[in-house]
Amino acid sequence: MEFEGGSMKPILTSEQHGSYKRDGFLVLENFFDPSELEILRADFNGVVDDWANTYYQQGRLTDLFADQSFEHRLFSIHQAMTGDCHELLTGISGKRKTAAMFYVMTLPEILDLVGFLIGPEILAHPQFNARAKLPDRTSVVPWHQDLGYLHKSAEETFMVNLWLPLVDANAENGCLEVIRGSHNCGILPYNSGGAEDLVPESIPEGEVVCCPLQVGGVLMLQHKTVHRSTPNFSNHIRWSLDIRYSDPALPTGRDHVPGFLVRSVSQPNRVAKDHHDWLKLFAENGD
Predict the structure, then answer these.
(1) How many CA atoms lie within 13 A of 248 on its CB side?
(2) Which end of the chain is more exposed for a tag (fewer CB within 10 A), N or C?
(3) What is the mean pLDDT of residues 254-272?
(4) 91-95: long-range pairs with CB below 8 Å, 24+
(5) Which residues contact 208 (CB under 8 A, 6 or more apart)?
(6) pLDDT average, residue stretch 259-284
(7) CB within 8 A of 244, min separation 6: which ones?
């Protein structure tokens, strides 16, 4: 990492770049100032607060848990309602196209890193997810490849996949584990359960690496790297975000869902300036 003008600029060393290409993943500690994620945490807090008040007014919740932290409040509501808060869980999960999400997805530190790897034409890929892993000791995401969620047309598209913790992630609260070098094994077959139901015999043998990461760090993955998240045995929620980027000229594997240009030398007028531009793409696409 290099500091320039008071801001942190990501520059991969030749060793780091080689490790990413060889191992299929790379952990970058202290990648950016953790305060950059406060806008997204506040966005999620707003959703939790809105639904807590709605449930309270409906008589389905007797305590707003308003004094609890980002890491604890959602689970307290979930426990108090014995899990009957599906609207809230849906609201904070998946693909939120908000100003806060746009802000994080277009952080200069992230785009500089992606540009280093794929060049000046950068598409924010349409496949991204926010996750709140509850401390229920059972929730897991089994071994899978991110490519398994996409059409096989994207197999040769080089994607930079990034996993960002919104709270410190460790083995206790369910951080990610990866199989070193598994990106070299091609597309793995899976059963009828989909991408997270890999044929057991196809899961590569190799070193399983646990990747704890503090807020402000980034786990870089490739789209064929086999990885999973383990159960959350802590007393708090493990919040995280996974996003990815690719060259806009190459297949995304999600042709029916638009991504948005975040940098472009050839088409600068098409670069999204805010989340409203992002949303317009869905209107133009008929979604």
Answers:
(1) 19
(2) C
(3) 96
(4) 91/47, 91/50, 91/51, 92/44, 92/47, 92/48, 92/130, 92/132, 93/129, 93/130, 93/131, 93/132, 94/129, 94/130, 95/128, 95/129, 95/130
(5) 177, 178, 179, 180
(6) 95
(7) 125, 127, 128, 146, 159, 160, 161, 162, 223
Distance in angstroms (rounded) separating the CA atoms of residues 159 and 117: 9
Band (284; pLDDT cuts 50, 70, 90): confident
User: What's the pLDDT at 68?
Assistant: 97
SS3 138: coil
Per-residue confidence band for 110, with pLDDT thresholds at 50, 70 and 90: very high
Looking at residues 163-181, what average pLDDT do you find?
A: 97
Select from 123, 161, 165, 125 the least CA-distant residue to 145: 161
* Token code pair at residue 73: 């409040």
Contact (CB, 8 A) for 225 and 178: yes
- pLDDT at residue number 15: 95
CB environment 24-33: b (16+ within 10 A), e (fewer): bbbbbeebbe
pLDDT of the residue at 8: 45
Q: For residue 102, what are the CA distances in angstroms to 5, 76, 97, 243, 262? A: 24, 28, 7, 11, 10
CA–CA distance, 19 with 269 (Å, rounded to integer): 35
Domain spans of the chain? 2-34+96-284, 40-92
CA distance 237 to 94: 16
Q: Which two tokens stand for residue 101?
A: 């999400």
Q: Does domain 2-34+96-284 have CATH number 2.60.120.620?
A: yes
Q: Residue 282's pLDDT band (boundaries 50, 70, 90)? A: confident
pLDDT of 263? 98
Nearest Cα residue to 98 out of 49, 41, 50, 160: 41
Instruction: State the pLDDT at residue 285.
Output: 73
User: Which amino acid appears at position 185 of this protein?
Assistant: C
